[in-house]
């Protein structure tokens, strides 16, 4: 079936929805790669790809979920090219920390962010999608191209790991800069990227 | 008792306080879970650099 050119109003809708989702793309990207400037690069890349693929977007479905798939894949590709070293943005973490908390014992968010970045990428993204992005397990599974049970288990493991790290104050300093750790991450990324055709088009 | 009032007006959370998930009381909410949401929401609420809108406008004009 030949693809019909989208009507002007469909294109306008697409652009509007894509625009609306940009703040969420930035938040997801920041959580994934930890650094504001790199995250924004990733968002730009995502917008370009989303624009080029707009005929494949089903109007009425979730623009956020659709673009997250694109962003995620761009991230995995870039990560394997070694663009991101899992650095994190201390200033953001600190700023968030100063936000009114209402908590007796506010967690040190830069610790949290660093702990988050030490998680294997597939657990980190699962936790980000469900715990921060507010996606259901089902939606997260669709975004990551895996089974719902897999997402549940990843989120569970990520939570357990963070609980343990933050409870003990046992947060690896910069293990991501460590060569062995970095290689391990890349190997896991290979699995993530190979196993799951999330963006089957 | 005294919650700190942020001095910068833009720090006010757009959507008000985060909704507490009412479901399964099974896993209690550790502090970091709230922190994770805050980290995300704080980025969502950041003023958007013009670059994104510019990019979309450029793409739009090209079509």
Automatic annotation (TrEMBL), chain B:
InterPro entries: NepR (IPR041649). It comes from the Bacteria. Residues 1-33 are annotated as: Disordered. Residues 30-63 form the Anti-sigma factor NepR domain. This is Anti-sigma factor NepR domain-containing protein.
């Amino acid at each position: 079936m030949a693809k019909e050119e989208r009507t002007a109003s469909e294109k306008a809708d697409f652009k509007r929805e894509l625009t609306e989702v940009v703040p969420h793309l930035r938040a997801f990207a920041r959580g994934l790669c930890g650094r504001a400037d790199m995250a924004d690069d990733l968002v730009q890349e995502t917008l370009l790809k989303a624009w080029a693929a707009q005929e494949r977007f089903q109007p009425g479905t979730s623009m956020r979920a659709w673009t997250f798939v694109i962003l995620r894949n761009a991230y995995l590709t870039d990560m394997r090219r070694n663009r991101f070293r899992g650095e994190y943005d201390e200033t953001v973490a600190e700023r968030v920390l100063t936000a009114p908390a209402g908590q007796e014992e506010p967690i040190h968010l830069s610790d949290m962010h660093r702990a988050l970045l030490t998680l294997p990428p597939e657990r980190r993204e699962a936790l980000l999608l469900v715990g921060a992005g507010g996606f259901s397990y089902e939606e997260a599974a669709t975004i990551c191209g895996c089974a719902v049970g897999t997402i549940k288990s990843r989120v569970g493991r990520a939570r357990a790991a963070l609980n343990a790290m933050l409870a003990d104050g046992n947060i690896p300093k910069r293990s991501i800069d460590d060569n062995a750790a970095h290689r391990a991450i890349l190997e896991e990324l290979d699995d993530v990227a190979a196993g799951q055709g999330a963006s089957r088009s | 008792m005294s919650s700190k009032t942020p001095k910068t007006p833009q720090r006010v959370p757009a959507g008000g306080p985060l909704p507490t998930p009412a479901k399964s009381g099974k896993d209690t909410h550790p502090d970091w879970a709230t922190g994770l949401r805050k980290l995300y929401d704080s980025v969502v609420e950041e003023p958007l650099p013009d670059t994104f809108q510019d990019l979309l406008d450029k793409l739009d004009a090209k079509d």
